[in-house]
Amino acid sequence: MNTPTIxxxxxxxxxxxxxxxxxxxxxxxxxxxxxxxxxxxxxxxEEAYSFYEQRYAVKYAEPQGYAYAxxxxxxxxxxxxxxxxxxxxHDFGYGLRKEFWHQGIVTEAGKAVVAQVKKDxxxxxxxxxxxxxxxSGGVMQNVGMRYQYSYEEQWKPKDILVTFRMYQxxxxxxxxxVYKKYWDTSAVHFVETI
Length: 194
Known about the structure:
Blueprint lengths: L5 E2 L3 E4 L6 H9 L1 H4 L10 H16 L5 E7 L5 E7 L7 E5 L8 H15 L4 E7 L3 H9 L3 E10 L4 E11 L10 H5 L3 E2 L4
């Protein structure tokens, strides 16, 4: 159950390993790739090793986790990541090196991960994106997620005010369920016409 490897037409989705730290550094050190991600770009290989230990090795020790390296079948080297958290929000997230943008790679990976978590019995997933990054919302729509609401958050650790759009996909047939925690905890929340 723990992060099963998934193959798609073009991709292998698998666990990151210590051998992938250089590839991890390429993904997480790029300022443009990390602009809309919740951490600062990595500055050194030492930071990349630490990031691997904290973000991935810990997840893989848990009984159930979905934290994948996105690799092209051609070389099995990570070019991005995709994950679904096991916390109550079941947050779906992703990032991809910019030379691979606009090729449908994250959508292809996302559909495969959604199918896996549905098969494993997750009731729903959520995802959020900065409304200044609408392409990320496009990925969410492409994997079947629906926009629910927007909210403001003082985003840590970057300490900037961000308006997020929250998307959700119910996997258990309960189409009425809306995850409301972000709405309830944000003083500024609203529904946009998208």
